[in-house]
Amino acid sequence: MKDGRKFKIVDTTLRDGEQSPGIVFSAADKLTIAMALDQAGIGFIEAGVPIMGEEEQEAMKLILSAPLQAKVIAWNRAFKKDILASVACGCSFMHISVPVSDLHIQQKINKSREWVIIQLQESIALAQSFGCTVTVGAEDASRADMEFFLQVADVAAKMGALHIRYADTVGCLTPVVVADIFQKLIPRCPLPIEVHMHNDFGLASANTLVALEAGATLASTTVSGIGERAGNAGLEEVVTALHNLYGADTGIDVGNFKSLNELVMQASSRSIFPYRPVIGSAFLENGLR
Amino acid sequence: MIWVDQTLTEGMRIGMDRENVDWLLELLGNLQVGVIDVDVNAWQKYSLPPLNMLRQSQMRGKVSESVEEVECAYQLGFRNIMITCRPNPGEALSNQVTATLLAAQKLQLNIALCIENTSNFSIEEIEGLWRDVSIMGVTTFIYSDGSSLLNPLSTFKRLTAVAQRIPTALEFHGHNAYGLATANAMGAMLAGVERIATAVAGVGEQGHAAMEEMIMIQKRLLGDKTVATENLSRSCYQILSAIGVELPGTKAIIGQDIFAHESGIHVDGVLKNPQLYEAFPPEEVGLSRKLVIGKHSGTASIQAKFQEQNIVLSANDAQYLLKQVRKLAVLQKKAVDDAVLWKLYQDRVVS
Known about the structure:
Chain A is an alpha/beta fold.
């Protein structure tokens, strides 16, 4: 990976991170965390889900009013009401997520692949009519037909989406499988790929790094790996590994990680597990052996 | 697979209670750990009785390049021994390492040689190293990635190459500075390595591959259905209690909260089919599913929560309660517990 490629982080501490059961960030917490992420050099901050309600909308407006370098992204399902709620907050960067596995399409929303494509097209067009830039999310991509993922990517690319998210929604991928999938996917995918890995088997960061090595260019992470169930790929793990093991660049200042973690842990009413890589006390005390 | 435990070593390093050592060894036995490593100096400081036959076969004493330590291990009853060293790449083993190996061989100990900085060596240098030690009774070579220099794919490649070039059993001992220990250990497994260092929840100085993750990866992702895991979360929880480490609720595989669902989309999905948002059923590791009501809830979650009590909630009531729940959750900065939810409901129904 020492080919000078630059990787970008899409941090979702404020969205997927906050979805970890029991965590609630106040609007003020969200603003402080967003500013700290921005300060660290994170390029994209996924800040929340405006359709969720007034409290979330207030927080979103507060973040949007801050002078941040990072792009602030609102998360949406491919529904008109979701897009309109985000637009009403003043969001100009929209992530629009659709399920792509047949399991999710059939059993969760009881629809068809065709319906998903139409819904996505309409939602992208609606967001763009308000002047918004769009990224597209493919939920449960790891259990989907790769051809359908590529079909969604084609639709998104033709409509001018910035990049597409490949989500391992239940964290069932392994590094070897990721390497295989991305070697096939990268040459055929018309958009840059963002990888969004979950940690159900403890492999989220590894899967993220292997996907980046194979050609993905963006990584979705959360501070300290907070998120649904066992969480997401940890920001600090992915970035320090990229720098130290892969010789790659992210433009992120790792010196901010300790304070960023303390901030997020405090706002989550959680404490840092001593054995959490990079930031846990087991790793800070002695340095590398 | 032979899991080589590092939990006891870490427990002693952080000063676990002496009276918990027996309990810990018993618990590790329940997890079908193949080898239990322990630092001989630490074991001595705990002044525990000499090893009985069972412990002799189960445990392995870790020593550095020191004849004295080997002799001490022998006196404490250790018959399996791990000699650790950090040679300079390209050079022969130091005289001190050679003397230690000879002493261990004279005592007829079962010897594992651990090179802490194996990742700094080229494959040829590792092979060269072997020419020095093959005569000294070493039965196991431990590839230690002491500074966490490997990634999953490089682990696979290097361990495949090393396995072809050495005449003894190969063991992999990775560390977790970048959160890759489990993935690296899996890479070693795929390279054919059958002995892997692990610790419950990945504990250890510089961390290790998490034992519970390796066990479930073996079962779920590599298809070894014979592995029994129904008590995995409880066993791991007890093991961590024995060494005085608190298990985070969201720890993969064993955390109490990994099957707690709050967000509207996820709860709605899990109610339709748990596979939508769960990698495996909670019962498989002895955990249970929980519906948490809070800021991210949807009306379906609220209705399902009351359905648990056989109360059918109208869409209107659910919508009303959801608004109250979200306000309250943000105000108190945490989820809304059952008692409070019940009160909100009664206020609504009674008024």
